[in-house]
């Protein structure tokens, strides 16, 4: 493959739209004659609604309707109608379905009015009475009733133990055993969840939704409201941050569609920032890790057990402990994962779900183990390097983690680290160097892509995937331009619309591989279609030529054997007499491939090195340098890829130092439900971050050799910060986030 | 069981205040709206004027996504009532540049990949423009601190810093107003903070 | 947010009269806290009186050598005013430690005093709060009280005043000028905000209808030895866990005069005159500072989640006094701006 575009730091093709404010997000389609819905949220965590007095509110001029369980029809009866593509097992929450309150901030009514301000005001004076009953929201009190989940949701692999941990523990000469915890966290993308439903008449809707999967939103809407797909077109051209929060359709979508159908009007429902704390979150976990090593520093036993929260109505599962069975070489591994039901909303995948939580415990414990074994933390990891995936008993398709260790450590200057806590200083400040790392799945899912060349020679490639900030528009444009040998200006990638070929949810780090490879396939199909057209044209050189005999470059199709023999692609389309020639890839092989057991373990890896400086009296922590070395196969665009990893590091720092959704268990309510009090890092928190992409060629993972980047960069960051703080201060904090009070 | 009442009836609706004409001077144009005093400047822009480039991230002055320039100074439009801004010169992202004619900051944000999802971006750019108008931010440390009123959940902070620094540097005497775009190795640190080889810390 | 009428007042006396004639009326300056509280339905004024046209936005020298800050001057204009930078750098530092540049561009000096607490429960109508609804109880006691107070609290309320600027104003012996139905009067800054006692719904000692018109700083600005140290959960754009305004007058290494006020720990900026008296005449040493810090926190009471603030405040006081002592007597007149460096 030539590399005119792939692998080049192309600036985002959607950049001009984003920096000028013309990129439109879900709540920005100002359709004519639109009503505004405002959600009323429950003040209690558990109980039932006993009275709703809507009359005074309905008497306000301009209030169109107050929807609640008392007047919303039961559009669907069965749980399966409410289950989206990735719904975990259980009985999904149904907004405004009955009087029962299952979690604090549960939507209990939707006030619809002519203006946003009126809807907001009317919602604030809507009189509702509740009977509250005792709720349970404290995970630590429910460890004993925690249970092993069954299948869980798609992608969940029940952790598998191997060997005999008890034996391994006894064989060890050095041991570490510790408890770890972190609180719930909320995604808090900058864009609040919102849906604008445009009523087109006769139950035909254009639905502008904030989502990471237009097809998933459409699926749910068609199932619940009994609409055919052509009546429920979902459009999502830009998503103002996802991080997992948009993997499941949120309730504002259902409320907006319901209100639109009932009132036969266009309706917009936007959630408030407070209401962004009313749905999925990274679940709190309590974890236990025990490690043992032999005299040579090799791990003889790994035990990792986690209890996580879920709701009363669904079993949310994620892979928290499984990674501990594959990241390091060890014969004896005991893993356990349980869920405890609490009166909270169902948790939801949040950037590096499971792995981010599990890697905190594993990677801090590895640091502790290195100290206990008298080894440098990097050397300790090298000694326990896994060359074969023992969890699946499969060879790796590729694994350049060793390069991450070497190149990251070199860039960071790790060699100059002195081991003893408190042994490094910068003036009065304590300096700490810590490291961590992790592993994430390289997944490819079936995705449909259409490639269409018009008579002007412009290529439009389309797929119903999403742009959540990861650079989808840009990298797909690059791949398509490269595939068809066109200048990048001659290519447009279109996404975010259920009228386009179907694409999987934008998540799990799989979009680049899934859609990217499909773009190549679709372009290949288009090339075949163009070649077929040449057979109808008077061009002796191309008679009987096969697709493998041609290449695409400079807007032409050329014979590989004689590049002077060329057809201008635009001319081929014009000769066809059609406005365009188009082709779509087939997902059949990709679907079949998913049914077969894998031959390789396919994963991305990283190693992170962190420097902190800690004031020895005030115990303020500043992360002054981070080097994140990532092995993720082919990097399609180092500019956008680097940004992904920079963002991941910021997420890791947030997780380590400040992010937590604090619940007051007396109310069963997250109390810091604002961006003033749910702290995410600000610009002043961020100092030097260096991203290293190590070379990793992989012809087995998928044709383009892509492994995905959305999650892997975050792994080990929080642990590396914690380890650096230990190195600086001698204080081992195992409860995230490490706020100042834990260091005093 | 405890009885809980939400919005006690004592707070029942009063007579709603009628709308009134409010004229705002936005991006060089007078725009007259018929709104009640309860419409914020942010909602006036987004819901009444279709100027949706200004974003709503929190609606409480806690994220900076709604930042616009009023009389050249950057403010949170979510915390200002539209009626309070009659007579002010309001500039939004749409007034700073267009896709065909980007402002220096807009171009620098693209060049430095200073955004991902793009939702906080107009607010970031308006903040940076305000700082540049005021001449307060000169060093990297100052820019970091003074850009801290704009959250970016995608975590593009280091690229935002280098984009803003580039424009500030480009405006210094001798730079002739030209944008200096340093050659940048994209796998390395942000511009101006190329990570040096590590000096041995004092032990 | 409830429905309200709005008028732009043309003069102070007209504004005061208008307030008296409208039940449920409120003054609005920058709006940064009031509009926020109105959206949360914590504040429900039925009439707003805009102050923008009152012209109280100047900063000028007073005959006694002090400086008068117009109540409508913005926090940003105040912080960056040349007289503030050169003569009251402590105030500059405190203002710039608070909020964000865009909030400081809107927020007024008078409004800064009128900010209400950031206690989670005060902001959330789903929970009881004596400050918001007297008699319902204090949820912060026994709850999530990380942001709450440790000094001067009561069984009714442990909320803190969130301002940074006020901590410096307290330390600098500011006088608050107000106009009301009964004419003009002045209030000493230490008497302006109150402790919660049994009436946490009252933040300050303003009489109904009174309007802040200005803040008078006395001549003495402690421009040679000062520090504003703010500790928070992230480097910027967060409310203080603990902040300290320290100002010293030194004769060699001997303290001749001292000011010490804390933020983030009480219902008001916590000025401790007894501690200041302990400093006077003493050598500016760590020992002295530690003794004084212990004295300030002598009667502090932790409520669980915020108990760490007692130790943190002690360390912060020692550090702030040390910083004030050691600083070189040169002031960057360009903009007295200390980027959020380590430990501050």
Short summary:
Chain A is of the alpha+beta class and 744 residues long. A seven-stranded mixed β-sheet of chain A has the order 3-6-1-12-9-10-11. In chain A, strand 25 and strand 26 form a beta hairpin.
Kindly describe this structure.
The complex is a heterotrimer of chains A (744), B (203) and C (344). Chain A is an alpha+beta fold and 744 residues long. Chain A has three domains: 26-134 and 189-272, Aldehyde Oxidoreductase, domain 3, CATH 3.90.1170.50; 142-185 and 281-442 and 602-742, 2-Layer Sandwich (Aldehyde Oxidoreductase, domain 4); 444-595, 2-Layer Sandwich (Aldehyde Oxidoreductase, domain 4). Chain A contains 16 helices and 33 strands. A seven-stranded mixed beta sheet of chain A has the order 3-6-1-12-9-10-11. Chain A has a five-stranded mixed beta sheet with strand order 16-14-13-8-33, sandwiched between helices. In chain A, strand 21 and strand 22 form a beta hairpin. The mean pLDDT of chain A is 97. Chain B is of the alpha+beta class and 203 residues long. Chain B has two domains: 19-96, Ubiquitin-like (UB roll), CATH 3.10.20; 104-170, DNA polymerase, domain 1 (Orthogonal Bundle), CATH 1.10.150.120. Helix content of chain B is 27%, strand content 15%. Chain B has helices at 41-48, 93-96, 104-111, 121-134, 140-146, 157-170; strands at 2-6, 20-26, 29-35, 67-70, 73-76, 89-91. Chain B has a five-stranded mixed beta sheet with strand order 3-2-6-4-5, with helices on both faces. In chain B, strand 4 (67-70) and strand 5 (73-76) form a beta hairpin. By secondary structure, chain C is α+β, with helices and mostly antiparallel strands. Among the domains of chain C are: 5-52, Uridine Diphospho-n-acetylenolpyruvylglucosamine Reductase, domain 2; 226-325, Enolase-like, domain 1. Chain C is built from 13 helices and twelve strands. Chain C has a five-stranded antiparallel beta sheet. Chain C has a four-stranded antiparallel beta sheet with strand order 9-10-11-12, with helices on both faces. In chain C, strand 4 (59-61) and strand 5 form a beta hairpin. The longest helix of chain C is centred in the C-terminal third of the chain and has 19 residues, at 308-326. The chains are: A alpha+beta (744), B alpha+beta (203), C alpha+beta (344). At the A-B interface, helix 1, strand 2, helix 4, strand 7 and strand 19 of A face strand 1, helix 1, helix 2, helix 3 and helix 4 of B. Strand 7 of chain A pairs antiparallel with strand 1 of chain B, so a sheet runs across the interface.
